[in-house]
Amino acid sequence: MLALGGHHTVAGNPEGNLWTWGNNKHGQLGCGTSDEAHNVEPRLLQTIPPVRAIACGYGHCMAIDRAGQCFAWGRNNLGQCGLGSRTQAEPTPRRVETLSEEALELSLGTFHSLVRTKEGRVYAAGANNYGQVGSETDNRAYTPTQDSPATSFVLLESLSKRGISKVSAGANHSAALASDGVLYTWGWGKFGQLGREMVNGRQYSAVPTAIEGPTVVDVEAGYDCLMVARAEAGHLPWHGVRDAVFGWWGHVGEVAGLW
Asked: Which among 122, 130, 138, 187 counts the fewest CB atoms within 10 Å?
């Protein structure tokens, strides 16, 4: 296991032990302190049980233990750790009690976090200034603000029955792929990274919305872009990326179309 943050790194071995190194200004190394020092030597993280998944945001980290419980640490100024509060630093891994379901997957953006559960549901926390956490409010009425982040993980109800098989967080946008190959996107879309037109010319879209087009088999969100793999005609989705055609949207030199 390996995850890279803004200026820090987390690595794990097959037994689920974690090592961290890099910048620790916001406690993102999980060693119980926060300081300006740069730790160049990997340090064993001893305050968390064995884990099966890890992820890093710009200044925060999350992990899933073998029981499906989530732990978070690091920068939490906008509630991105999902602990129910806002703090400048969470230097020790804490169990995320605002999540009650067994977690399977994590994806962290700059200041927001996505969690996919065993039941195929999606939870989100953190900054929502571009709608990247998501909302059930119609896009035309939704007005995100930097001062109203989600400090606890919230269920995205509109995706709860879609059987989500993967989530991916970009800097300020989010994507979720359903088991039937339908892709949903939301958040910041100024550079076309959502793969669709914005409502009333806005540069964000808070409501997870399906992208019309061919079946998608994989998705990865970058800083201001979105990379997808779609199944070719005549190939079934479970043939995987080997039988796929790649495309992207967003800030990659030009706004590129996929379909």
From this structure: 138
Positions of the chain with pLDDT lower than 70, given as ranges: 136-148, 199-200, 232-259
Looking at the domain assignment, is residue 57 inside a domain? Answer: yes
206 falls within a domain: yes
- pLDDT tens digit string along 52-81? 999 999 999 999 999 999 999 999 999 999
Cβ count within 10 A of residue 207: 18
Whether residue 220 contacts residue 207, with contact meaning beta carbons closer than 8 Å, is answered with no
Domain count, the chain: 1
**Contact (Cβ atoms closer than 8 angstroms) between residue 62 and residue 93:** no
Whole-Å CA distances, 234 to 75, 185, 230 = 46, 26, 12
**What is the rounded CA–CA span in Å between residue 91 and residue 249?**
36
- The dihedral built from the CA positions of residue 205, 251, 73 and 70, taken in this order, carries a sign that is positive
Residue type, 119: E
224 within some domain: no
In 40-106, where does DSSP find H-type helix?
Answer: none
Distance CA 99, CA 114 (A): 11
As a whole number of angstroms, the distance between CA 133 and CA 112 comes to 7
Q: What is the pTM of this model?
A: 0.88
What angle (nearest 5°) sits at the alpha carbon of residue 48, between those of residues 46 and 51? 115
CA nearest neighbour of 10 among 163, 1, 98? 1
State the Cα–Cα distance between residues 241 and 246, nearest whole angstrom.
9
Residue with tokens 């549901």: 121
Give me the sheet containing 173-178, strands edge to edge. Answer: 164-169, 173-178, 183-188, 204-210
Token pair listed for 5: 């943050």
Domain containing 65 — which CATH number?
A: 2.130.10.30
